[in-house]
Amino acid sequence: MKIIEIKTYHLRQLLDEPFGFSQWWYDQRNILLVEIVLDSGISGWGEAYGPAEVNQTIIEKFYKPHLMSRNPANTDEIWQFMYNRGIDFGRKGVMVAALSALDIALWDIKGKVAGKPVYQLLNKGRETVKTVTPYATGMYFVKRDNLSQHLAEEAAGYVDAGFSSVKMKVGIGDIAQDVANVKAVRTAIGENIGLMIDANHYFSVDEALELGKQVEQYNIDWFEEPVSPDDYAGYRKVRETLNMPIAGGECEFTSIGFADLLSNGCVDIAQPDPCAAGGISEMIKISQLVDQVPPEGKCRFKLRSYVATEAGKNPKTVTSSFVTNSSVQKMTGLGDSETTTQLVFHTWGSGVALSVSLQLCAGLLNGKKSNGNLPYPIIEYDRTINKFRENIFIENPVIFCNGKLTVPQAPGLGFEINREYLEKYRVDT
Ligand SMILES: [Mg+2]
């Protein structure tokens, strides 16, 4: 069994109505998919988060030449090879996102070869998981009169559709407007629906505290990315001061990055994006880290030292050089009580990314207890316009019904790509 081809697909959808968040406006949606083809004819699919052209170039020019003829079953070895190959300039960011897409495709292959959905490889076949509860991500900024009313109506629509929680954007540039938007949405959805706010690292610490204090009365289930992802002390101050859970991590990469985020006591809810932060292989390690964080929130993870690659040779000892469950150590003196930190995967992009997060929720998180009012596990379900969420499959295995999303049960990630649809929206040919 060996890799004989790696293909990339850049898809683009032009949007009729742009939507924005605290950082910029979207007028188009770009997706980068990767397909790894084996000599046996089996194909595995993955997706990279971030700028599609850049991810495409990294995969095609940087990783692909090193992966041809390799045995796809050696996911740890291939992950470590790719990471080591880029470590001098790509420990975080798009180098890891491109790596993530390839790792995900290898896990799709792993499941297809085993004849099992990926989640059953992750939970070792312990249980069948049919559904995961989603929350609706929406309430982006749009250029319309009376934005608060528009957002309130959008949120009420998600509740009518069966969602039990919704997430909205804040950081519009005017805290009074943010507060008015949150109030309008809370009023529209009522008290029994979960409400999360997401600033996409827009605020200074003082601004985040100002907004947080003003919206505490609206029962916020988490405040996502209140401050810069680099500001660990700021995260901690916001978390210690506000009376609401703090979430973050979609700008963080690999288990090394999450060890920093968690050991600095930054978040109640860690949000790695599987298509950015290191693929399925790395999500396993991050979930193990999250499970080790004590209720006090602060802990220390001992990372094994990095083993350098001997020039021109594949590293042989690399799988032992990373964060593993056995290498995780709690800070002494913090007790052994149950963790309260939780994992909620950041999920954006096509149906491929959504299927990956569903497999991870089902395989790594199912059966774990919630630390708050929201169900757990819970999956992010983006509700903005996106042709590639449902339509790129021959038959969509991810169905929203009775407030739940179905987990694909077919082998691998559980879908079959509609190649005609792909070709229709490709912009790289
Ligand atoms: Mg976010």
Descriptive notes:
The structure is a single chain. The protein is an alpha/beta fold and 429 residues long. It has 12 helices and 13 strands. The strands form 2 sheets. Strands 4, 5, 6, 7, 8, 9, 10, 11, 12 and 13 form a 10-stranded mixed beta sheet that branches. Strands 1-2-3 form a 3-stranded antiparallel beta sheet. Strand 6 (194-198), helix 7 (205-215) and strand 7 (222-224) form a beta-alpha-beta unit. The chain binds magnesium ion.
SSE topology sketch:
Layout: E1 3-20, E2 25-38, E3 43-48, H1 52-67, H2 75-86, H3 94-114, H4 118-122, E4 131-137, H5 147-161, E5 165-169, H6 175-189, E6 194-198, H7 205-215, E7 222-224, H8 232-241, E8 246-248, H9 254-263, E9 269-270, H10 279-291, E10 342-343, H11 351-365, E11 378-382, E12 400-401, E13 404-406, H12 419-425
Helix pairs in contact: 1-3, 2-3, 5-6, 6-7, 9-10, 10-11
Brief sketch in words of this structure:
Helices cover 35% and strands 17% of the residues. With 429 residues, the protein is α/β, with parallel strands linked by helices. Residues 198, 200, 224-225, 250 line the site of magnesium ion.
Largest sheet, in brief, is: 10 strands, mixed
CATH superfamily of the largest domain: Enolase-like C-terminal domain
Low-confidence stretches: 304-308, 315-337
Q: Could you state the oligomeric state of the chains shown? A: single chain
Please tell me the overall pLDDT. 91
CATH class of the largest domain: Alpha Beta
What is the N-to-C succession of helices and strands?
EEEHHHHEHEHEHEHEHEHEHEEEH
Integer-rounded radius of gyration: 21 Å
